[in-house]
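May I ask for a sample protein chain and its fold as C-alpha cells?
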Amino acid sequence: MHTQRQHSSHVVFVGSLSLSLSLLASPARAWESSSQQPPGEAGPETLQSLEQRVAELEQRLAELQELKIRPRTLVSVTGYADLGFFVPEGDGSGFRWDVGHTYFPNESGYGWVFYGDILATPVNTRGDPADLGVAPGVVRYDSVHSQGHASFIANELNLGINVGLTEKALLTGSINFTPRTGSDFSFGDSFDVDIVQLEYLPTRNLSFWVGKFDSVLGIEYRERKAPKRFGITPSLIARYTTGTALGVKGRVKLFNGAIVLATAVTNGSFTTENFHFYNEIDANDNKTVSGRLSVRLPFLETAEVGASGSFGNQDRAPDGTGDEWFFGVDLIVAQGPLQIKGQFLTGNSDGDPVSRAYSLKLHSGGYLEIDYMVTEVIGLLARGEWRDARVALVMERLYLTKSWRATGGLRLAFTDNILFKAEYLYNGEYFGGNVPDVPNNLFTSSLVLVY
C-alpha cells in the first residue's frame, strides 16, 4: 500500500510540475509572437492560439484533478511452482489395522481399530501423504497413492492475486493447482481456493479481514506455503491449526507492536480441509470464536511468546450436538542465522452419532524446530515432535495415535526465487507392550520456483 501511495504522489507531482512549466512558457511564447506584430496591431492569429492554449491547459488541469481523486487499482500476480521427489518406506501409509483387536483388546467395542498416524508420511508442504493405505469401511481420495514406491511429483502450482482497491483496502486470492493421476478417462488434476479475503487497514496498527483467511491459532500457519516454510513438511499438529476458514477477523497491535491481539469468528475451526473436522459452509448457526495473544520480549532480534485457542460447536454437526475446542502456547526466538520455534496444543471434539461427525481427544501434541543458515545459501533444519490422540466415528472405527517424529533437513537458497529443500522423516510409535512400529519413514525433496 505504501508503494501505491508513493506512485500516486509521483504522478500528481510530475503532472503539477508539467502544468507549471507550461504556464510559465506560454506567456514567453505569446510575447515572442506579439513582438513580431507591428505596433498597435492585436494580432488575431496570436489571440486565437493563446485561447486554444488556455483551453488545452484547462483540460489538462481537469484531468490531473480527476487523477488525484480517482481510486487507483493496482493488480499484482504472484505464486510459485513446487516440484518434488520422494522415497517412502513400506507401503507409504502411516498406520496399520489392528485385525482381531490383537494389540488393543481393551478397544474391542469398536468395529475397526487402527494405530499409527494416517498423515504421518507427508511428501510436500501441503501435507499430502505418500499413500492413504487400505482401510475397510471408507472410500477416500488418495491423491498421491504411491503404494510405497519412489516417485517424482508436481506438488503444486500456486497462483496469487493481490488487488489494491484503495489505499487502505486490499483484495487477496490464492489458488492451488495440483496435478495428479487420472483414471477411467478422467483427469486426476484438482484445484482449491485457500484464500479469498478483503483486508482493510484503517490505521497502521489495526487490521480487519472478511472472507476466507489464514488461521489465528499458533504460529505454523505463517509458513504453511512452500516458499515461506524453511523446510518442507508440516508438523504432526499442523492439521489442527494451519487451515483457512470463512468469517471475519481483526488484529490490533499495541505498544508499538509489543503486544498483538488477533480474534476471529468463523464457520468452523482452522483444521486443514483434508482432515475430519473441517467444514467450509457451516451446518449450524453457532460459530467458532478464535483468538491469539502474543508478547514480544525486549531482547534478541525476535523473541515472541503467544497463547491461542478456539471454541465452537462441533464441526459438521447440528446445533447443540457438542463442542469443539483447541488451546495452545507457542514460542519464536531468532538471532542472526538461528531461529528456534515451537508449539504445544491440546483439544477436544465431542462428535455426533446422528450426523456421523468424528470425535477427537487430542491429549497433547507439539514440536520444537531449530533452523540455522550456515551460509547465505546453505541452511540446516532439525525438528522433534509428538502427537497423542484418539479419533473415532461412533463405535465403528477408532484411530489411536501415540506417534513421535524426528526430522532432519537441508535448504539451499540459490536465489530468492529458486529454493531446493530435502528432508528425512523418522517416524515412531510409543504405545509400549507388543505393539510394533509402523514402517513409515520417508525421504522427500522439493524444488520451489517463486514468481
